[in-house]
Design a protein that fits this description.
Length: 489
Amino acid sequence: MMRNRKYFVICCAIYLFFELALIPTYGQSQAFLQTWNRFRHIPELRHASISMVVMDASSGKIVFQYQPEIGLAPASCNKVFTAATALDRLGPAFRYQTLLAYSGRIRSHVLEGNLYLLGSGDPTLGSWRYPSTTSDSIWKRWIHALRQAGIERIQGDIVGVDHVFPTQAIPGGWVWEDIGNYYGAGCAGLNWHENQFDIALQPGKSVGDAARLAGVRNLPDAASGGQPMQIVNELLTGKAGSGDQAYVFFDLTRPVIFLRGTVPLDAAADFSISASVPDPVLYAAQQFQDTLLQAGIVVNGQSLAAHLHDSIPPIDLLTVLDTVYSPPLNKIVYWFLHRSINLYGEALLLTLSALEQKPASRETGLNMIHQFCNQLGIDETAVNTVDGSGLSPINRVTAHALATLLYQAQHKPWFADFFEALPVIHDIRMKDGYIAGVRSYAGYISDITGKSWVFAFMVNNFTGSSIQVRDAMWKVLDAIKKGHAFSAK
C-alpha cells in the first residue's frame, strides 16, 4: 500500500513537472517597466488607486498585473459586463416591440376611446442614430396607421404605457449633478428621443456676462395637460476655448430646471446642450399629441402616463394599429459601447430582468449579470455594481474581472458583434470610462509583432488634469503596442 502511494506521488510530480514546463511564464521588458514606473510616479497619482491586468489573448495567461483584485470604480468600462450579458442572454437578433393601439370604437372618423403607446423598454424609439427609429419616421408611420383606420379625431386621451419597468426611472447611486443632463436620462418602459431635449445657448459679449438662452426644442410639459417646465438661466460667459461647461440641474421639489456654468465666448452659432426628461412615458405621449395636432388630427383629451399601478384595458381588448420593432440588439450594443449611452445600459439591465420576472427590477438584472460573470469563472464579488452603465461612482469591479470577461468573450458566438461594438480609441480597440476622479480602459491590443493582448486598466482618485492622466495611461498602452513588452521565459 505504501509502495503504491509513493509510486502515485512520483507519477503526479513527473506529470506536473512536464505540464508546467509547457506553460510559458512571462517577464516584462525593461522598456515597459520603465514606462510603468514613470507612470506610477506622476504627481496626479500621488493619492490614487491603480489596477491593471494584461493577459495573453490566446491563452489567458496573465503577463502583467498590478493590484489586480482591488475593487475600483470602472465608470463606463462597466458597460462591457452589461453588453456581454445582453448578447449572451438575449441574443444579437433580439428586438424590442412598441405597440400603437386603441380602445373603444371608430365612428364617423372619430375614435371614441383612448390611443395607447405600449412600451417594452426600447431605448431607441425616436432616436436619431438609426434611419428606422427617427422621430419623423415613427410619427409618419403612426399617422399613416391612424388614417388607414379612418381616424381623423380622437375623442379620448393619448396614453403612454409602461407596465414593464419600475416607476423609478433613475437608478440608485446616480448623483444629482448628473441626472439633469442628457447622459443622466432615466430609463422607462416607454422612451422617446433617448429621453432628452435640446437647449440652444449663446455667450454674452464679454467674459463674465450673462449667457443667453436662445431657444428650446421639444421642451416637456411639467405634468399632464400642464404648462412647459420652467427654465431658470444662471449661465455666464466663459473664456474663449473653455469649451462646454454648461450643465442642467433639476429642482427636486418643483417643475423647474436650472442652467448653471459657462458658455465659451467663442461658442459656435448653433451651440446647444441636451437635458434629460423627468418622465419619459408622459413625454412620449405629449410629443405624439403635439405631432397629431400638427398633422390635423384633433385630440379632445390630454396626454397621460400609465405606470405599473395604473390600470388600462387588457391588451386583448385593445385594437393594435401598428407594431414598431427596434433595431437588432447587436446594433443597439454597437451604439451603447461606441457612444457610451447610459440610457441603453439601463434598458438592457431591466430587459435582462424581464426574462426572469415581470415587472422587471434592477436587482434581478444585476443578479443576471453577476451570474453570467460567475459562469465565466469570475468571482461574483469582484463585480459589485448598482447600474448597467457605470455612471454611479459607487460601482466597484476588479481589473482581473474585466480582463477575464474580455478574454472569455473571445470564445462566444457573438464575439464579432461585441468586438465591433468596442470603439477604436488611440488606435486601440477598447472601451473607455470617465467620471470625476476616474479613468478606465479595457479592451484588446495588437502589437507590431502581431501578438494580441487583453487588458484592463483603471485609475481612481487622481488629482489635477484628467487629460494628463489619460495621456500617461496611453503611454503605458503604447509601450505594449510597440511589441516585446512581455516575453515567455
